[in-house]
Amino acid sequence: MIAVARIPVQRVQDWIACQAITVEVAAVNAPDHLTIVGSRFEVNACAAGLVQQGASIAEVNVAGPWHSSAMCNAVDEVEVLFKSLTFSSPCRSLYLSATGKQETNPDSLRRMLAAQIAQPILWHPVIESWREVGVQNFVEMGPGRVLLGILRRCWSSHSEYQVTCVESPSGGTQPFRRLLTNLSKEGTLYEKS
Hints:
The protein is an alpha+beta fold.
């Protein structure tokens, strides 16, 4: 998997479609940033061609071909697991990274959460939806500042936003739990009844 930046997403998608390769788009992060996945040989060949067009390339360290058709068998396994779980309607809409849209229907959530394993992540449409409804505060969990970087690419000329980064060097959840506790106390996390 590699990240491709600094050229429009549509241009990258069109270029890949014209090549005799089986590289797939794994994520659309911003208007000028996406990730592609495939065999090492084909991804490297694709990267070389995109660099010639002015793209910036960075390898993404992954354990498998996530968000591509190579993961279809895993989708079936996860669907079977999810059928054994009770899904209820959330009190707020969830934005699905596989569609870029809001969802509240439990059956759709169950199906789409499994399907997203083999479908591209559509961060840019999700972020645009958030911006349209006035979301301005974000919490990023985990190592690095990926969400912050994506927001900068998407919202550079739009309204202000704030990202709170929560990470633990040991991979623990304690910093996130403290953040949730503080937000809950302030009344900003849950609506008061």
